[in-house]
Amino acid sequence: MRAAAAPPSxxxxxxxRNRARGGLNLGLWTxxxxxxxxxxxxLAAAAAGLADGASAAxxxxxxxxCAGAGGLGLRRLRPPRHPTARVTFAAACSAWSVMIAVSxxxxxxxxxxxxxxxxxxxxxxxxxxxxISVLEGLESLPAGVLLWRAITQWLxxxxxxxxxxxxxxxxxxGLVLPGDGGAVPGRSSxxxxxxxxxxxxxxxxxxxxVCAAAYAAAGMGAxxxxxxxxxxxxTGGFGNHADGLGHFDSAAVEAVATIFMAIAGISAMxxxxxxxxxxxxxxxxxxxxxxxxxxxxxxxxxTAWTYSGAGAADLRRGAFAAAATMSSTGFEAPGWSxxxxxxxxxxxxxIATGAMAATAGGGFQMPRAIAAARYAYxxxxxxxxxQTVHVVKIGRHSVSERSLxxxxxxxxLFAVAMVGGAFTLSLAGRGLWEAAAxxxxxxxxxxxxxxxxxxxxxxxxxxxxxxLMLLGRLAxxxxxxxxxxxxxxxxxxxxxxxxxGRRTVR
Length: 506
Known about the structure:
The chain has a two-stranded antiparallel sheet with strand order 1-2. By secondary structure, it is mainly α. It is 69% helix and 1% strand. The two termini are 13 Å apart.
């Protein structure tokens, strides 16, 4: 009886080993792609440094090694064709770890900082597209380092879009885009992964080039134009100057930034069809209409709350702040730490809400916010009329109960992370408002929030913000799913070893 039961066990173990091997191949292939992308970015940064007359040997050597090793891995490795969600998310977490490690080495090798914790935090902030920067003396840094900071955010935004494309067919479309299947006209099913990546990369790259050209036309030099384009379209918010866009003191530069921050908050899938000439998608997408409505209301409210009698300047400042907060771009609005409390609370609320799904931005994001509001309304209606059957919809599309269950789970994770971060920051000595605002802005990958002094943060506070940035960039679920998958795999491995041991003894 025991001998007869052994073959299935061995077969099951073989299948488990094959799945583990496939997962390992996907992880190594993804890490190779991350290394190759970082290597290419480092070589571009080194070229910018050489053009500026500065030494870029460290960036060149590190870039060449990463590009070569990553390219070799991509050629040799073959990822599985149908990986599971856990394997995909674990591979994504591994790729982010590789990018952060490469960037940390680049900052230390180039002499941007001598502090390992600062280099790690700057790298996390970059690839998580968060505008929390701890480097000092930005104006004195070489051009190569400045461009590399911007490239980290651009690569982080692209990686977030690629993760979205990988997650849609694997995990749950309702989790990322609940009920928004009508965002693409005539789409009956989700395109394959390769098609999605090509579309996303095309839109992302095209908008970046147009943004760089607009910045140059507004009066920026080549380095600043490309750097700020990278950090605007990726909703990152890094700048080449300590005072950010205020360094240029230009209404034209602020106008370009406001327009492209608002565009960066629009779904890349929607932008793809707009680029193709299908402008009717804007009127047909309930998510886009809601995004435009909330953005317009935010501009009006912030302008009214901070009105100083300057007319157009007040409107420009309100529009800049609303676009920066809703798209979770880390560009800081001038003087917002001195705004009335109502304006500051509204700004943090816009940061937490975020923009549309399928963007490089963070936050709760518009589809989830709409679904949460509709779900709350349904529960009120059912409480008053228990016999009523009320279906939650976004536009004309119904949201499944499975998507609502995932939404509730995401809400809980988001709230726990936000409250836990605020509580820890409060224990470290931050004030209640500063702790809450910093927690929300880091989790939403925004960056500095109203009233938050980044220079006064200690090691514990920076560690908390780094953890929140990673949670926000990986959208909570991938990180949780990957961690659960690793734990489950370890338990299965231990159980299999114990079973093999018992069979060997017998």
